[in-house]
Amino acid sequence: MVEEQTVTRHALRLLLEAAGHEVVAEADNGVEALQLVRQLQPALMIIGLNLPRLSGLELLQRLQARGDAVKVLVFTAQRSEYFAARCLEAGAHGFVSKHEDMAELTRALDAVLHGHGYFPSHVLGTTHATQGDAHVLALKALSARELAVLQGVCKGLSNVAIGAQLALSDKTVSTYKIRLKQKLQATSQLELIDIARRHGLVENHGELSAESNDEDGDTQRLLRKMIEALPYAVSVRDNDARLLTCNAAYLAQRNVTLDAIQGRRVDETGELRDEDPQLVQAWLLQQIRAGVAFSRDIVMTVAGQPHVLRHWGQPYHDRAGKQLGMILGNMDITDRDEQLRLLRQDAEQMRSDLHERDELLAYVTAELDGPMRRLVAQVPSADSERMLSLLQHLQQTSELNSGRYHRVAAPVDMRELLGMVVDQVRGSCVGIDLDIQGARHPQVWVDTQAVKQVIASMLGRAMPGPIAVRLIANGRGQGLVEVQCEVTADVRVAQAPEGFELVLARKLVNQMAGELSIHSHNGITTQTVKLMLTQA
What we know:
Elements: H1 6-18, H2 30-40, E1 44-47, H3 56-66, E2 71-76, H4 81-90, E3 94-97, H5 102-113, H6 121-124, H7 134-140, H8 144-154, H9 159-166, H10 170-184, H11 189-198, H12 211-228, E4 233-238, E5 243-246, H13 248-254, H14 258-261, H15 266-269, H16 277-290, E6 294-302, E7 305-317, E8 323-332, H17 334-378, H18 382-402, E9 410-413, H19 414-425, E10 432-439, E11 443-446, H20 448-461, E12 467-477, E13 480-489, H21 500-511, E14 515-521, E15 524-535
Parallel strand pairs: 1-2, 2-3, 10-12
Antiparallel strand pairs: 4-5, 4-8, 6-7, 7-8, 9-11, 11-15, 12-13, 13-15, 14-15
Helix pairs in contact: 1-12, 2-3, 8-9, 8-10, 8-11, 9-10, 17-18, 18-21, 19-20, 20-21
């Protein structure tokens, strides 16, 4: 959005975001807008015409000359069909007057974003109606910079003020004035202004001395139109928190009329029937006097029922930068908050259930441990050994789930540790190949028992082989070593259901802040564990 007025930009942002658009940047002058387009490459840019440093028309011409792909919608207070035609010639994709209903802006946005132009026929229909008029032809021939100077003259600005706005010296502005008189065949500055007004280049509001007040009034009217188009409650208050205006959604939320609350503070209106109005007024004053944007969720009683309202505020200023007050709004997020509350309750209940389950598992495994060991000692068999191993895995899982598992790290050479685990399974598989050439920094601190258990689980799932095992260990600075162990085999491990041992292996790897992944392609499956360990 490129618009000189801060309050207009903010109101426009609210309107756009309420319609689901993302505003990526704002600018209050044409030069900054050019830089932002190059940096951000937005899909659409909304610009005004009366911009400092580089006018809207000049901005359009620069964008077109540069070949920027951004679509441009002109949103201006100018009603004149003359400007619509000039914008079209300069490369704009749409033109909407601020005097139109806000629905017109919504339609224009939709059209331009879908690749269509938006220049309403009633705006462009008369662009060639007076081609015989010498002044029309002369005005059409003006450059964008000459047109910007003419607009400044019509506003009653001095050469210095026009120069400051357009980044020109006052002498250059004087030269432009002479050119304008020559091109428009005007004998005086008053005649220049008269020609411009007769052809709709500026709004005719009467005396020049009233021009700035009329512009402020136009800004306030535009602000009221924009907030009225918003679907949630919005109000505008002065620095004493007195209400200047609000939209219909605000009136409906508070069940009041505008006449009853306009110009008054919340502690004077009776609109907060279920809240302490003095406290709310004090809070409003605190936010306004802080002079910064804010957003905060507050529980308030509305129509006798508690509601969660997301309150936000944005200060607005005059042309000189003086704060005039704050735009305030709130959105009822009660339904969303209730959903979050229920989700939190479910999460707490789940944690409680899991804790009870882990406690039961710990009790059962502790009770069975002694008898099972005695049974294995008395009647040794493969089945009893598997039962004892399963019981130990259950105990370990219980410790991991309940947070009772404690890692015991020790310095180790990962090449030796991996070789030890591989040697234990050599006799049980078709063939196994160990590659440790990539282990440039194998000396690390690690929970050796956990790592052996994880790798043994990976090898078990790769049986009967043949199996390829590769170890990579590289220093990453700051005393850290990235360790990666890959187990590859001609088996479809990725499609097999995860057994208890793999579930436990994942838990152990997570406990070491690592990652265990399985990928399969054309029947070849690779299991990979990655760990970031301290160098020994």
